[in-house]
Write a structure and sequence with these properties.
- This protein is of the alpha/beta class.
- It has 3 domains: 125 residues, no CATH class; 126 residues, 3-Layer(aba) Sandwich (Rossmann fold); 181 residues, no CATH class.
- Helix content is 46%, strand content 13%.
- It is built from 16 helices and 12 strands.
- The strands form 3 sheets. An 8-stranded mixed β-sheet has the order 3-4-2-1-5-6-8-7. Strands 9-10 form a two-stranded antiparallel ribbon.
- The longest helix has 32 residues.
- It starts with 28 loop residues before the first helix and ends in an 8-residue tail after the last helix.
């Protein structure tokens, strides 16, 4: 879409906080997981380096030591030793650590055959190095796991339960009996009849929130970071609740309130909280990836320099033929619902100030001069967005940004539309290379955009850019 406007829209988009109540950010589970993983990596690296101290000749070959450390970390990762669990102990890691460490030392000794100085090392020295590394690794991991368990008790994650009141009360009582689960319940979201529900005789009463407004107020006032849905999150009755919770950037989990022998096909994401099987269904906002930003900076800078003659030619032609106002600025919605100013070449002037802000198709759009139609057909009017990418407002690849007025409408009518804002908006995306440009299905765009975010990889970005380059000259703009 290339609609334009001359004034800003004042529509409210996703759930933003005012100056009186700062914006919600996820500082709970996700950040704690990252901290624990970093400590585990540091512990394993230190143990591997100290384990090789016994091999004094090996210290003369730092590249071999570095390769050994990388091998150890790769073997540990393959064994799942960096999947952070809430209730994990040193003994849980012992078999995998011992086996992978021994395998890494076998590879090291096999690779060092070409170094005569290492062939004279006694077997007892090698075994002592293995034992020292295993012991140091397990000791360090025991401290990291203990630190996480203590943090879960001292700083539990504020949580809402979503589900039938009777079932939610039973689950709430079980969770409150196990503070080590790291959950602090602040309310039950459902179609309850009373204002409060007492989970058991000893536990404090939990409020039952029966409207979306009450639920949003509870999230803001209590800093709720997670919502646990009892049963399936795809149930029709949960849709309105989950949409609002997702807009407020809460982690959303499914919890099985009844034990079952049937488990999901993909069990890697499963966790257990107070004995209940649960899994994340909507993750936190897409974390910034240094590789994606580096790709954006490199490619946008290169293209800005390479396309500067084209940009200058288009600007001069528009200035001569259409008069002042070559560059057109429009407010769009980007990552996490934040507005930014999108840049394009001005190819059409709306009939009135609010037309382009609130109309899907601008009036008399097809009566523009031939050069402006050429810019739209070839998408050359979008080239100025490379400056948005270079500044960090957008990415090269991502969901196309939309105007605030339509973001509000689409968020209300198309489930999952707001989830597109987990990712920085882009010039092109998976939806665009599948033909979803211009006046096409918003539901289809939403589905393709979320599929791109769920399966993101740096290579996928490169692939989409290459496919976009082959379709650059197309009959309609994006």
């Amino acid at each position: 879409m290339t609609q334009e406007r001359t004034v800003s829209s004042t529509a409210t988009v996703v759930a933003q906080r005012t100056a009186d109540s700062p914006r919600i950010t996820l500082v709970g589970g996700a950040a704690q997981d990252d901290s624990s993983r970093a400590l585990l990596l540091a512990t394993d690296c230190t143990a591997a380096l100290l384990g090789t101290v016994a091999l004094t000749p090996l210290q003369r070959h730092p590249l071999l030591v570095a390769a050994f450390v990388v091998l150890v970390l790769a073997l540990y990762r393959n064994a799942g030793l960096y999947r952070v669990a809430d209730q994990r102990y040193m003994l849980d890691d012992c078999p995998a650590v011992a086996g992978r460490t021994a395998a890494a030392w076998c590879v090291l000794m096999a690779a060092s055959v070409s170094l005569p100085v290492l062939q004279r090392i006694p077997l007892t020295v090698v075994l002592s190095g293995v034992a020292a590394q295993v012991g140091l690794t397990l000791l360090g991991r025991a401290l990291v796991h203990w630190r996480r368990r203590v943090a879960l008790v001292r700083r539990p994650c504020t949580t809402l339960l979503v589900g039938p009141e009777q079932t939610a009360s039973r689950v709430a009582a079980a969770l409150q009996r196990h503070p080590a689960s790291g959950v602090r319940l602040v309310g039950i979201v459902g179609e309850g009849g009373g204002e409060q529900q007492r989970t058991n005789d000893a536990a404090p009463a939990l409020p039952v929130l029966t409207t979306v407004a009450d639920m949003r107020r509870a999230v803001i006032q209590n800093g709720v970071r997670r919502a646990i849905v009892l049963g399936s999150s795809s149930a029709p009755g949960h849709r309105a609740w989950l949409r609002s919770l997702s807009e407020l950037h809460c982690e959303i989990w499914e919890l099985d309130p009844e034990p079952s022998a049937y488990v999901p096909r993909y069990r890697g994401a499963d966790r257990h909280v107070a004995g209940f099987r649960c899994r994340p269904v909507v993750g936190p906002p897409f974390p910034p990836h240094p590789g994606k930003r580096a790709l954006d900076l490199a490619v946008s800078a290169l293209l800005l320099v390479a396309a500067s003659p084209v940009l200058l030619t288009c600007a001069l032609w528009l200035r001569i033929s259409e008069g002042p106002g070559v560059v057109f600025r429009q407010e769009r919605i980007g990552k996490d619902g934040r507005p930014f100013t999108l840049l394009k070449f001005r190819t059409h002037r709306p009939a009135d100030p609010m037309e382009s802000a609130t109309r899907w198709s601008v009036a008399n759009e097809h009566h523009m001069p031939w050069f402006c139609r050429f810019l739209r057909r070839t998408s050359l009017d979008e080239l100025l967005q490379l400056w948005n990418v270079f500044r960090g407002d957008m990415s090269l690849v991502g969901p196309r940004p939309e105007r605030p007025y339509f973001v509000v409408q689409f968020s209300e009518t198309h489930p999952g539309y707001n989830e597109r804002h987990r990712m920085p908006s882009g010039i092109t995306g998976l939806a665009q290379i599948n033909g979803l440009r211009g006046d096409t299905s918003i539901e289809d765009r939403c589905r393709f955009d979320n599929a791109y975010i769920d399966n993101w990889s740096l290579w996928q970005d490169i692939s989409i850019l290459l496919r976009t380059a082959t379709e650059f000259f197309r009959p309609t703009g994006s």
